[in-house]
Amino acid sequence: MRVAGVIAEYNPFHSGHALHLTSTRAAGCTHIAVVMSGNYTQRGEPAVIGKASRCAAAMSAGADLVLELPLAWATSSAEGFARGGVSLLAALGCVSVLSFGSESGSVDEIRAWAKRLDALEGGEVLKRHLKDGVSFPTARQAAAEELFEGTLPPRGPNDLLAAEYLRAAAALGVEFEPLAIPRAGAAHDSQGAPRMQGEIASASAMRRLICAGEWERAMSGTTPEAAALYQAERGAGRTPFDYGLFGSIALARLRSLEKSDFAALGDVCEGLENRVYAAVREAVSLPELYEHIKTKRYTMSRVRRIVLAACLGVPARERTCMPPYLRVL
């Protein structure tokens, strides 16, 4: 028995995800366990389709077990997301392979980038770039280019996240065999719509189509089984998620909070709670709120995660440990 672990959001599950599971099986893995975000995602937003249907879609495409990544880690930064997912796979006690999508398809290059990230963390070069007032990802990239010019491996979003998986495994003392499955089809966050059934589009393109009501075009980017599951959800009125209604509820919740509540959040520092507190009293929609809070120091994803954590009551202390349970979806 050779069990592979996969960490994913599947927001929504599409043909590229199905190919990843098929390729993992073809690489000699007899079973596949997936750790999947629940109803909220690392982007700091609710998933466009509920977790039950996304789980069923993954099962229909070859997953044998789907576990839920708890909220505090599902809505964390890439480092926290990776730590939570890796710790759950390790807790199963049977996973020997960590399978992930990759732009480069090279475990060696991903390992090299992980080692460079280790060398950067807490270093003086990184601190110097952070003093320029830029976001952490921007500062880290600038520090890496300064220190490792000419020797940097490819750094696509999937490779960067894979490097965080390897770093998390090392930090937790867990040994997995890394399996890099080359990403096929549309690039990460590409907005190109699928043109035929089964064509691989990005999850962000599919979310855009679903929210725009272009249902048939969106469903051509996933498997027939997943499309049927999503259609049932649509017929029951459970998808797509109503982001406009969520925004109204979220703003009402945020306006009931004090500055100390915002200060207790994991991604809030350097007095940012004052900016958030003022912004929630001026903005009339979530997009407007995000723009009021965002600066060059804070990425839009980080701002969305702060807002979501405030709405759902996820304080920083909940991310200081590892998930204490396994929840089977």
Major beta-sheet overview: 5 strands, parallel
The side-by-side strand order for the widest beta sheet comes to: 3-2-1-4-5
The parts where pLDDT drops under 50 for at least 5 residues are: none
The average pLDDT is: 89
Shape category: globular
Helix content: 40-55%
* End-to-end C-alpha gap: 22 Å
β content, as a range? 5-15%
H/E element order: EHEHEHHEHHHHEHHHHHHHH
Briefly note the structural class of the backbone: alpha/beta
Give the helix tally.
16
Molecular structure report:
The protein has 329 residues and is α/β, with parallel strands linked by helices. It contains 16 helices and 5 strands. It has a 5-stranded parallel sheet with strand order 3-2-1-4-5, with helices on both faces. The protein is globular. The mean pLDDT is 89.
Quick summary:
By secondary structure, this protein is an alpha/beta fold.
Keyphrases for this structure?
329 residues, globular, alpha/beta
Topology summary:
Elements: E1 3-8, H1 15-26, E2 31-37, H2 51-60, E3 65-69, H3 71-74, H4 78-92, E4 95-102, H5 107-120, H6 124-130, H7 136-147, H8 157-172, E5 177-182, H9 203-211, H10 215-219, H11 224-235, H12 243-254, H13 259-263, H14 272-279, H15 286-293, H16 300-312
Parallel strand pairs: 1-2, 1-4, 2-3, 4-5
Helix pairs in contact: 2-11, 4-8, 5-8, 6-7, 12-16
